[in-house]
Amino acid sequence: MIKTFRGLLLDDEQEKIRLSTKKGKIGYKIKLFELMPNNGAAHKNESTVKVYKVEQTSVDSTVDFSDGNLLAAGYLENRDNDAYMGGMIITIFDQEIFNQDIYITHKDDGGENRKINYYLELEVMPLTDNAAVVSTLRDIRLNPQVGA
């Protein structure tokens, strides 16, 4: 089964995507992550969008693949110039299975405070009791606030 989410993020915004259940026996992994500027034909964007397992204390454009809480990252660049095609880079850590809420952040380094659209497809899978415990304990270890 696939569950989809889409939204519009402001610059410096963080959005919570609610996924957690009481028993944590439903797991998810990211299958597709896409970005599109809110008004690409008329504006310049240099947007970094990241998906995390835990809430972030700040929103920035730095991407660190060694961060165990990072699930996906995307960079989209376009300019209001017909000669420039722009580009997008998306990286998904598709072997990461999670059973808690996730957070998506957006930072526009183009200096224009632009909005960006995102689309996220998650594969839904049942977790055994052991897999649910392992996933929850891993999240607690990476982020002590999860167990509080």
Topology:
Elements: E1 2-9, E2 13-17, E3 26-37, E4 45-52, E5 70-78, E6 87-92, E7 102-108, E8 116-126, H1 129-142
Antiparallel strand pairs: 1-8, 2-7, 3-8, 4-5, 4-7, 5-6
Plain-language structure description:
- The protein starts with a strand and ends in a 6-residue tail after the last helix.
- By secondary structure, the protein is mostly beta strands.
- The chain has one domain (2-147).
- The mean pLDDT is 85.
- Strand 5 (70-78) and strand 6 form a beta hairpin.
- The chain has 1 helix and 8 strands; from the N terminus they run E-E-E-E-E-E-E-E-H.
- The strands form 2 sheets. A 5-stranded antiparallel beta sheet has the order 2-7-4-5-6, with no helix packed on it.
- It has one helix spanning 129-142, and strands at 2-9, 13-17, 26-37, 45-52, 70-78, 87-92, 102-108, 116-126.
- The radius of gyration is 16 Å and the shape is elongated.
- The chain is 9% helix and 45% strand.
Order of helices and strands: EEEEEEEEH
Rg, Å, rounded: 16 Å
Oligomeric state, counting identical vs distinct chains = single chain
Class from secondary-structure proportions? mainly beta
Helix content: under 10%
Distance between the termini: 31 Å
Biggest sheet details:
5 strands, antiparallel
Low-confidence stretches: none
Q: How would you sum up this structure in a few lines?
A:
With about 150 residues, this protein is mainly beta. Helix content is about 10%, strand content about 45%. A 5-stranded antiparallel β-sheet has the order 2-7-4-5-6, with no helix packed on it. A 3-stranded antiparallel β-sheet has the order 1-8-3, with no helix packed on it.
